[in-house]
Structure to design on (531 residues):
């Protein structure tokens, strides 16, 4: 019997110590885990001194072990009451802690007065202990059972394991005390029961680690958050192996990816550079972005690739562009006839003047050539405005592009540049973008500006190109319709250039804006880094 008692005491002390260390080091800091930690500490203290009493000395450990036995029912009752009635009144705990304190004081008094040893070795100690242990332990079991019965099925396990541990330990401990009162023998039922209860606690904490382990809890909450997002998330090692993919990313990619190399090359490029890109994957258009998380241990570094389904936005952008094309075409059709009447009439008059056999009039021929060129320009620009625009995107250095435009411009002497250094490359159609910038510069010169300033800058996720001049300001009645077809402030202008510029910029996912300055006009083009 003694071997079983002290063997189970040592086992319970070890399990209780491990459980207390786990709760102290890793559990969330709240009242539930504080109380549970106190329960584990009492189990450890009681059984450790029980084992020491047998192997080292009987006097001191015999009194100290009773502290754990006495405090354990009170902490269990407090734990069960807090679970079952979170808003309970503290007065329910007063008798439990008062009873435990009184018994502890008597116990510790035995350390200084050896005459109390006889009291603890007699039936009187059990008669004093049982009225404390039985009601509070039974009340804790009833409270836990009620909480277990009312809990949702998926969370009952959290309340089941402390209830099972109590149902194992309390009846065995009470039975041991009852046998001692009747037959004056001490079967090791209490120690065996509490050792078994410690095993149940260990199993429960392991099974429900997301409640009692802060790291596991954080991992579960993070996973739930990631799975709830409508964005796909991939986590990749420096070698490109994908170690995590949430459900949204699997749905977007159509399969569980193994590594970045198995995906389109843009994925690995974005992961390496951190610069976003757009990828057409089957019927979907995905925006691919990346964040890096570096670690002192290189193998633990991660690249987080973020996926967003922008197919609908892409379709809406093209639909908007098509609608604007149709609207522009309708407006152009209504206005083009009017615009063509004057040059056609001039051509007709010139042809009539060139009667058969008449001497060739050089001035008339030049007028004929000029009016013919005007008709051709009107038709070319009208067709360009009516056609859908599909940019041929490529990586482009904006500063270098502006340098080339200035170098070949016949107005290079009037252009001053202010280019921001270190701008990332943008994905645009270089020819179309150059056409927009060149048209804005030419408009400024034709409007009478003595000097034109070309500047670039970075504004968040936009690249800015600013064309600023010190020419005449745009009249307020024209400013609101400046980018409409056939709206112009120049006598010889067609009014189609700015409308075409706006269409090109919108096709790139950007914006263009004009504003009057105190002494001139400024046009600003904003382009996303990846169009």
């Amino acid at each position: 019997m003694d071997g079983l008692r002290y063997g189970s005491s040592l086992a319970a002390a070890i399990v209780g110590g491990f459980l207390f260390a786990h709760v102290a080091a890793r559990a969330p800091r709240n009242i539930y885990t504080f109380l549970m930690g106190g329960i584990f500490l009492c189990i450890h203290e009681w059984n450790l001194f029980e084992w020491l009493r047998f192997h080292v000395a009987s006097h001191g450990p015999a009194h100290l072990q009773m502290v754990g036995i006495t405090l354990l029912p009170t902490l269990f009752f407090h734990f069960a009451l807090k679970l079952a009635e979170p808003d309970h009144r503290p007065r329910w705990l007063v008798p439990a802690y008062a009873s435990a304190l009184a018994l502890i004081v008597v116990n510790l008094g035995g350390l200084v007065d050896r005459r109390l040893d006889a009291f603890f070795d007699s039936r009187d100690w059990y008669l004093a202990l049982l009225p404390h242990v039985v009601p509070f332990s039974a009340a804790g079991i009833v409270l836990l059972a009620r909480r277990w019965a009312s809990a949702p099925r998926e969370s009952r396990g959290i309340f089941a394991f402390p209830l099972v541990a109590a149902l194992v330990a309390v009846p065995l401990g009470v039975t041991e005390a009852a046998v001692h009162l009747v037959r004056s023998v001490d079967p090791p039922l209490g120690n065996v029961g509490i050792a078994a209860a410690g095993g149940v606690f260990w199993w429960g904490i392991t099974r429900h680690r997301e409640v009692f382990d802060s790291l596991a809890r954080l991992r579960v909450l993070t996973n739930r958050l990631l799975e709830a997002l409508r964005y796909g998330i991939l986590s990749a090692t420096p070698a490109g192996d994908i170690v995590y993919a949430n459900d949204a990313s699997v749905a977007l990619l159509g399969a569980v990816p193994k590594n970045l190399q198995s995906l389109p090359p843009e994925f690995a490029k974005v992961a390496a550079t951190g610069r976003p890109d757009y990828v057409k994957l089957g019927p979907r258009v995905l925006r691919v972005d990346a964040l890096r998380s570096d670690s002192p241990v290189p193998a633990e570094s991660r690249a987080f690739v973020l996926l967003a389904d922008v197919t609908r936005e892409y379709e809406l952008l093209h639909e908007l562009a098509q609608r604007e094309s149709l609207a522009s075409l309708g407006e152009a059709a209504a206005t083009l006839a009017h615009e063509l009447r004057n040059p056609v009439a001039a051509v007709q008059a010139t042809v009539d003047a060139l009667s058969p056999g008449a001497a060739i009039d050089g001035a008339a021929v030049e007028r004929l050539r000029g009016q013919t060129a005007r008709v051709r320009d009107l038709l070319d620009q009208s067709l360009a405005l009516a056609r859908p625009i599909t940019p041929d995107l490529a990586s482009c250095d904006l500063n270098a592009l502006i340098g080339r435009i200035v170098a070949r411009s016949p107005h290079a002497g009037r252009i001053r540049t202010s280019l921001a250094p270190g701008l990332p490359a943008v994905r645009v159609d270089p020819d179309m973008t150059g056409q927009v910038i060149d048209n804005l510069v030419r408009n400024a010169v034709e409007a009478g500006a003595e000097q034109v300033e070309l500047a670039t800058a970075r504004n968040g996720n936009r690249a800015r190109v600013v064309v600023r001049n010190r020419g005449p300001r745009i009249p307020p009645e024209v400013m609101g319709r400046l980018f409409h077809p056939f709206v112009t402030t120049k006598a010889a202008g067609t009014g189609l250039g700015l409308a075409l510029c706006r269409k090109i910029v919108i096709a790139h996912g950007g914006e263009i804006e004009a504003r009057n300055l105190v002494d001139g006009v400024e046009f600003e083009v904003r382009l996303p880094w990846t169009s």
Observations:
- The chain has a mean pLDDT of 80.
